[in-house]
Amino acid sequence: MLFLCLLLAIGISSGRKVSEHRKISRIAFGSCANQFGNTNPEIFYSIANWKPEIYIWLGDIIYADRYSLPKIFIPTDEKSWRLKYNNFKNSNEYQNLMNTTMITGIYDDHDYGINDGDKSFIYKELGKKLVLEFLDDGSIRDHEGIYHSFVFEDLKLILLDVRWFRDNKWDNEGDSIGEEQWAWLEKELQSGERVKIIGNGLQVNTFDRSGPAEKWHEKSRLRLWKLLDKYPGVLLLSGDVHYGELLRIPCSKHVVYEMTSSGLTHSVFSTYNMISWYFLNIWQSFTFNVGKKYLHKNFGTIEIDWEAQIIHVSIRDSYNIPQIEHTILINELYGPNPDIEFCQADFKVLKYKHALSAFAVFILPFLLIFLATMIFLRKYSNSF
């Protein structure tokens, strides 16, 4: 009782519950908040100041795992895991957000409990329990994993779990969400809402890219496309990669956009500086991008004008300034995809493109340095 009184005295809030079956128009989302010293509290005030009606976590709410060696992660103990959630939940910036909007979401790998985690993770039951305690959204997930959906009149929000059933990322024949979740997803897509938003932790449609970032297994990605061909009106959301971008997917019968927002407290640029720009703008493909990538800390927003049947999407920086913006007609999500012919092309072209990119990124700079060194030695060394 004394503990409860202390919580009330210092203003700790349990947040606003998700309330379904009402129209909403303003949605914010984000991912990747490393709690090893939050260096970006202002972004959570910016999210609150944008006044979303709901905020969606797309994973990595905390980094529950820890380094044993550089870039080698091991699970943490339950006490430390819970403490990270509690410290973040009770912070001023997050309390402010909780008091202004409904919050829901899903985990990705680090809040699931381990980097690149999959179905083999032995502490996944604990990961599920702790993230649902943190979200405190009042929903009941009485099944394996934490996939769930909400209905807000003509909008359905579908959240997929890409960890609980996931095969190893190196399994070329692997599945990303499991048969139980596939069956559930198809039933969810059969309902009649005008707009359906599908959120998950991993990028879906970056099959044209090489690199270390996780993504959906190829068979799962193709299976999802077939589903979306049957059930149009979908917008995809993803996180994980520590930068923001908007993709338009050519290889589906109907137009499908994917918004990625990642890096609330850290980003590829804050970690790797100009190396990230060089890698992501030369090595990585821009095949499906609408506009630029944004490599700094960011969150995403969706604003739906139901009367005009328009969706305005943006990736915003820490100070609530839009860095990527695009307007989507809802009818566009139901019409034929004008880029479908691109998918009839031989995707080997993309592999050649990556080979040239690899040469440009990793080999050409060393050749230039070597050449400059030889010229210098030839000019200034009599012994050369």
From TrEMBL:
Keywords: Membrane, Signal, Transmembrane, Transmembrane helix. The chain crosses the membrane at residues 355-377. The keyword Signal applies. Residues 1-15 form the signal peptide. The keyword Transmembrane helix applies. InterPro entries: Metallo-depent_PP-like (IPR029052), PhoD-like_MPP (IPR018946), PhoD-like_sf (IPR038607). It comes from the Eukaryota. Residues 28-312 form the PhoD-like phosphatase metallophosphatase domain. PANTHER family: CALCINEURIN-LIKE METALLO-PHOSPHOESTERASE SUPERFAMILY PROTEIN (PTHR33987). This is PhoD-like phosphatase metallophosphatase domain-containing protein. It comes from Stentor coeruleus.
